[in-house]
Amino acid sequence: MANQKPRLLLVDGNNMLFRAYSGIKFDMRNSSGFPTKGIYGFFSSLHRIMEELQPTKVVVVFDGQGAKAKKQATMDKLYKADRKGMPDDLAIQLPVVKQILSLMGHAVYHIDEYEADDVIATLSQKYKRNYRVVIGSNDKDFTRLICSDINQLNLGDGKLYTPKAIEAKYGIMPSQFRLYHALLGDGGDGVPPAVAPRIGPKTVLGWIHEHKDFDSIYAAYSSKIRRNRFRLNLKLVGLNTKLPISPQKPVAKIPQLITLLDEYELKSIKQRLSPKRLF
Length: 279
Hints:
- This protein has 279 residues and is an alpha/beta fold.
- It is built from 13 helices and 6 strands.
- The chain has helices at residues 13-23, 37-53, 67-74, 88-91, 94-104, 116-127, 163-170, 177-184, 201-211, 214-221, 227-236, 254-263, 267-272; strands spanning 7-12, 57-61, 107-109, 132-136, 150-153, 160-161.
- It has a 6-stranded mixed beta sheet, with helices on both faces.
- α1 packs across α2, α8 crosses α9 (201-211) and α8 (177-184) packs across α11.
């Protein structure tokens, strides 16, 4: 029997905002000179995805202040050390994006000292009881959350990843991807590989497919794995699914929303508003 639960879209806000901003190659500003490229791109992307998925509920999560610094202080000082901060002209658009989302009636989360990854992981486990959850992000860290009630919409290739799709592509289950990322590391996040040089994804996938867990893999290939790095990486790439998050019950405020969109001269976003879908 098909899954009849309503669909919930759980958006990685920073991921969508930066992709949308980077994808527009020309400057956009209102008549007062305020930059609007990020705002326009974000809501254009959100509108397109909502048209495709037709979700009943939309939740958007952003990184909390001090999240990277906390992980650097408690786990590894190199974590995301080379990742540049948000460009100034995009950073000043972020509060406006959050305000528009709230006025539309969408739940918005940003919890100090926690990355969006952990908040999304926690919320996905809470919401899957009553919804079919779709995580909107191209962050591969979310792969391990994919199950019958949680899928991932990759914002890069536009594909919807299910457990069957992951197993067909990689030969391992989504829940095993934590091992995969811990062994290979993640250059973009400043997580070094735990395996010896010249050992790549194909080899690591074979190890996981054959041995399943940390202890078995290390016992079989200890000469090719840095044990302490492997253990640390498991923590760095891990997701917290048990944050104490209070549920939100947002209410759309259409008059205030229209006023805000007019203030920033976001005519195309205003034109897409639907009384039934609120975007």
